Amino acid sequence: EVYFKNLSKQKQKEVMEKNGNNHKLRVCVATCNRADYSKLAPIMFGIKAEPQFFELDVVVLGSHLIDDYGNTYRMIEQDDFDIHTRLHTIVRGEDEAAMVESVGLALVKLPDVLNRLKPDIMIVHGDRFDALALATSAALMNIRILHIEGGEVSGTIDDSIRHAITKLAHYHVCCTRSAEQHLIAMCEDHDRILLAGCPSYDKLLSAKKKDYMSIICMWLGEDVKTRDYIVALQHPVTTDIKHSIKMFELTLDALISFNKRTLVLFPNVDAGSKEMVRVMRKKGIEHHPNFRAVKHVPFDQFIQLVAHAGCMIGNSSCGVREVGAFGTPVINLGTRQTGRETGENVLHVRDADTQDKILHALQLQFGKQYPCSKIYGDGNAVPRILKFLKSIDLKEPLQKKFCFPPVKDNISQDIDHILETQSALAVDLGGTNLRVAIVSMKGEIVKKYTQLNPKTYEDRLELILKMCIEAASEAVNVNCRILGVGISTGGRVNPREGIVLHSTKLIQEWSSVDLRTPISDALHLPVWVDNDGNCAALAERKFGHGKGIENFVTLITGTGIGGGIIHQHELIHGSSFCAAELGHIVVSLDGPECLCGSQGCIEAYASGIALQREAKKLHDEDLLLVEGMSMKDDEIVSAAHLIQAAKLGNTKADSILRTAGTALGLGVVNILHTMNPSLVILSGVLANHYVNAVKDVINQQALSSVRSVDVVVSNLADPALLGAASLVLDYTTRRIY
Q1: Are residues 215 and 150 in the same domain?
Q2: Closest to 307 measured CA to CA, from 226, 250, 220, 391
Q3: Same-domain check for residues 442 and 480
Q4: Most exposed: 218, 261, 691, 722, by fewest CB within 10 Å?
Q5: Which is catalytic among the residues 95, 120, 158, 532?
Q6: Are 226 and 340 within one domain?
Q7: Domain holding 217: CATH number?
């Protein structure tokens, strides 16, 4: 488009003068099969409509003239084009040798035709072996070549043929910006490249408005409704014929199992097509009540069929190109179209060992409606191409110029990424247990392993590696792709280096420990490490109440008291990685001694250890047990006994719990006055016992401006593991962390 904006009327006038005012551009369009004719026909109609500028000669060869492939030359005659020459160039056999012999036969016959026609320019489409013969003949006879759809990337031998034609061609009409960049990277002269879009889109974008029910009924039966049938079109892959035939068998098995009315088109003339037809007949497709098998459907009718289908399946370029114009779901099978740009309507099944993957893809895609894609055109390709043809100066030398620009990459949706759940290995190092879990992107714990946490560093690290290796192996069996390892541990952690700086007294021999290096070396995966309180906050941010909240605080109430702070959606670590040690906020100068060595910390009042200490004191004084409670002689007194006693009316136990709740509440008030979060999340086994007390203290002690804060109990079953997993999942999915 930019090219033609820069092309002045004066330039066009000069070109006409150079070529001779009365000279019409003699254009030879050569078509080999039904697929390339669908792209060439709009250009042919455009050329025919401007007889003052062009003379059109049509040459037909290849599978157009074979009965087994529908004698599709007839649709060219029905479109009222005069066919100047018919060349029988296909050597039957449908194997690799037959393809080579067909190219040779075409090379033998074409020179005589071109000598008689003497075209100024030949239009060649695509990447078929017949087109290679056309381009070779024209190039050797010094006839200018205009190549349609060069620069694209797909699979199999087609890529090599397409790029070979590009090197033979003098002018290029491409369909996408990436194809244009590929042509430039292949040293083609930018001035001879036109980004026009796909000519077939000129028809496609207006086709859906036409009457279609009669066409659907004609090809699929009177009882078929729109969006309730499938169109299947699969060709052999010449570089791996056996595998493509196996894939075709699996496709037919999946379609039979899926049990929907299906229109199956016969494959093209490539090597392997005969074997594919045998597979169809072996499975009785031509006589199956759910299937309609046909050699050819006129393009106008084919457009209507795919536009209103519930799904298209196969490996035809039509599926990844034209069908996107309608938003019809497409399942692209195998490698034949690998590398082509696709819309979001295309789901790739690169490989399949059984019909299950294809069947799963059908279940995912069938009946969906995607946004219409205009990757390959906007409906104005033909006017651009005609302008481009008019601008060609026949007196210019044919020699090419060269340049070397970069090439853009292409990314597309893949069935393996959908079926294979992106997951993390999560490790939780607690005071008692060591746990490893496979956690999915949605926060589902797929599999969990638990062992007692060893007392020594060597045994602990050995067990971590053993459990992680076991979990990583199991991930393959449960169809999970492990993105990395996240570790949640008590103590002060340097997350940048993956080092535990100082541990709590609950985990022995756990200071100055490099966790990242040995685990990453053993598993060949990235490893993230952080404090358990921070991990709990990350779990809430990704999976819990904190999702979407800009500023919130998480408090863990368990064996100890910990937490994490999220400020402006990001976790706060502090200058020495000591932020959010919320359990050590001092709420009383002469309170009980804390494990940290200080007095009056929240943890000294409200942790599980603190409650256990108070419960033991009551038990030693015979003040713990009340009616309805009993303990075995060897049973260890715990915080749970204190809570049970309070519920059964033990006033001393109740007083201890109220004091603990008040201490926790005062700590929360200090947090509110310091950080001013909009949400406080209480997590851990004691959260439900403290939530009301915390709310009461906030209402009594906090400034009025912060009393509106929400205080909730976490609904996450396993915040430590989920937080460890979020270390991996947030980072590997490009969240800034």
Answers
A1: no
A2: 226
A3: yes
A4: 218
A5: 532
A6: yes
A7: 3.40.50.2000
**DSSP symbols for 491-539:** SEEETTTTEEEE--TTSSS-SSEE-HHHHHHHHTS-EEEEEHHHHHHHH
Tell me whether residue 87 is in a domain.
yes
Structural domain total, the chain: 4
Residue at 731 is within a domain: no
From the annotation, which residues make up the binding site?
A: 492, 504, 532, 581, 584, 594, 596, 601, 603
Measured in whole angstroms, how far is the alpha carbon of residue 678 from the centre of its chain?
35
Concerning whether 532 is annotated as a catalytic residue, the answer is yes
Report, as ranges of residue numbers, the positions in the chain whose pLDDT lies below 50: 1-10, 407, 410-411, 734-737
For every residue of 219-272, DSSP letters joined together read HH-TT--TTSEEEEE----TTSHHHHHHHHHHHHHHHHHHT-EEEEEPP-SSTT
Final residue of a structural domain among 514, 543, 572: 543
Are residues 665 and 523 part of one domain? no
- Closest alpha carbon to 72 in 102, 120, 32, 105: 32
Final residue of a structural domain among 181, 198, 215: 198
Structure tokens at 498: 């993956």
Residue 347 lies inside a defined structural domain of this protein: yes
pLDDT of the residue at 300: 85
Q: Which domain holds residue 483?
A: 414-543
* Amino acid found at 539: A
Residue 589's Cβ-side half-sphere holds a number of Cα atoms within 13 Å equal to 0
The string of DSSP codes covering 289-326 is TTEEEES---HHHHHHHHHT-SEEEES-HHHHTGGGGG
CB burial class (10 A; 0-12, 13-18, 19+) of residue 437?
buried
Alpha-carbon distances, residue 307 vs 298, 330, 342, 443 (angstroms): 14, 11, 16, 38
If asked whether residues 229 and 316 sit together in one domain, one would say yes
User: Token pair of 217, please?
Assistant: 């009924």
Tokens of 72: 């599709």
Q: Does 147 lie in the same domain as 125?
A: yes
Binding region for an N-acyl-D-mannosamine: 492, 504, 532, 581, 584, 603
Residues 539, 557 within the same domain: no
CATH number at residue 481: 3.30.420.40
- Go through 118-149 and write b for each residue having 16 or more CB atoms within 10 A of its CB, e for each that does not: ebbbbbbbbbbbbbbbbbbbbbeeebbbbbbb
Is the residue at 392 inside a domain? Answer: no
pLDDT of residue 3: 45
Are 229 and 252 spatial neighbours (Cβ–Cβ below 8 Å)?
no
Distances, alpha carbon 714 to alpha carbons 169, 318, 506, 572, 665, in Å: 67, 51, 24, 20, 17
The gap between the terminal CA atoms of the chain, to the nearest Å, is 43
What is this structure's pTM? Answer: 0.51
d(CA 571, CA 551): 10
Residue written as token pair 């947090």: 671
Place of tokens 């932020």: 579
Residues 613, 598: Cα–Cα separation, whole Å: 17
Give how far the C-alpha of residue 147 lies from the chain's centroid of Cα atoms, to the nearest Å: 32
d(CA 642, CA 637): 8
Contacts 24+ apart (CB under 8 A), 616-622: 618/642, 618/645, 618/650, 618/652, 618/653, 618/656
Are residues 571 and 493 part of one domain?
Answer: no
Residue 558 CB contacts under 8 Å (≥ 6 apart), including other chains: 607, 608, 684, 685, 686
